[in-house]
């Protein structure tokens, strides 16, 4: 694929910076080599990127391997019980050492010349240390490259930027909404089952936009779900609810509300009572009115709570999914998908929630199929010769004033169907892409 000159991308982004507040976004950002390359440096080189949930690595020695942009990262629980993240790159000649995506090991041994590292990153074994290096190699200098991490409510984030603001500031108040997914009772929420992941010819950003509160697509793209009875139709009132985003941070959430539908997205009363122990009254007030909560942490981590029936027509169970859109090239990504359950729920409930999640999301999920069919075509078209010079309208709700009496933080508007969160998302994205250092 040929790359447009860098100045061309600069102009595109400068035009976008003016266009976004006026409700215009260029198609080209959804499939372009030069845009992708700049994202790798200026977005993924600076942000806090989700790496793992603590419940994925509960015991000393447990590890998973994940990505920040094209950098493979080992997240390991050390023998002392703390979490350490390191680049999965042997310091001798750069071999990728750990080839499994998850496992348990106190050490990693490189398969090329045999250097050995503790899972905390220290280099402790060098073949022919005396004979070859004459004991002069300073092993302390050649440990694995550490990745800076911080944790919020079980989520482990990493950043490649030593000067990145603390995670708490980065989240900027979005914790209020994240807690609805992550603090579902004593012990919080935990991952149930391993993540599912697959490759898609899709730009990561359209997924983030969708999961920042695109309630607009649901009655159309997922209409089978209403017709087959997998979830109750929100009908003529579907647009009701709220869209909240944190200005300048890029995080956004859509909270769909349907009058007459069960409160708390239909979670059973015993689980709601447990949530009341960990969520504040204001959070409970917001969650009580929620049918669907679909939100994203900038740049590429999303969550969704959704009612879904295992048997069409029956009330069924509610599930929560966590998702990561890992870019692997222009218009290409690896999609990662997890099921989150309340730690305090019964095993029976967790299994039922997992079933509902796999019916709806993950690579065989029905909702997932609907979404990716649209996202893949959209990505392909965005890279075509005419489309890439066009813009899309992001004007929905552009004159709407934010609410002053909503219990949650951020810029909040009603109804839920609006482009307001997306203008916030694209504004932040453009700021990152234009900022030089
Ligand atoms: S590349 Fe790892 S020991 Fe040589
Ligand atoms: Fe969808």
TrEMBL record:
<dbReference type="InterPro" id="IPR017941">
    <property type="entry name" value="Rieske_2Fe-2S"/>
</dbReference>
<keyword id="KW-0411">Iron-sulfur</keyword>
<keyword id="KW-0058">Aromatic hydrocarbons catabolism</keyword>
<dbReference type="InterPro" id="IPR015881">
    <property type="entry name" value="ARHD_Rieske_2Fe_2S"/>
</dbReference>
<protein>
    <submittedName>
        <fullName>Aromatic ring-hydroxylating dioxygenase subunit alpha</fullName>
    </submittedName>
</protein>
<keyword id="KW-0479">Metal-binding</keyword>
<comment type="similarity">
    <text>Belongs to the bacterial ring-hydroxylating dioxygenase alpha subunit family.</text>
</comment>
<keyword id="KW-0408">Iron</keyword>
<dbReference type="InterPro" id="IPR015879">
    <property type="entry name" value="Ring_hydroxy_dOase_asu_C_dom"/>
</dbReference>
<feature type="domain" description="Rieske">
    <location>
        <begin position="48"/>
        <end position="158"/>
    </location>
</feature>
<dbReference type="InterPro" id="IPR043266">
    <property type="entry name" value="RHO_NdoB-like_C"/>
</dbReference>
<keyword id="KW-0520">NAD</keyword>
<dbReference type="Pfam" id="PF00355">
    <property type="entry name" value="Rieske"/>
</dbReference>
<dbReference type="InterPro" id="IPR036922">
    <property type="entry name" value="Rieske_2Fe-2S_sf"/>
</dbReference>
<keyword id="KW-0223">Dioxygenase</keyword>
<dbReference type="InterPro" id="IPR001663">
    <property type="entry name" value="Rng_hydr_dOase-A"/>
</dbReference>
<keyword id="KW-0001">2Fe-2S</keyword>
<dbReference type="GO" id="GO:0051213">
    <property type="term" value="F:dioxygenase activity"/>
</dbReference>
<dbReference type="Pfam" id="PF00848">
    <property type="entry name" value="Ring_hydroxyl_A"/>
</dbReference>
<keyword id="KW-0560">Oxidoreductase</keyword>
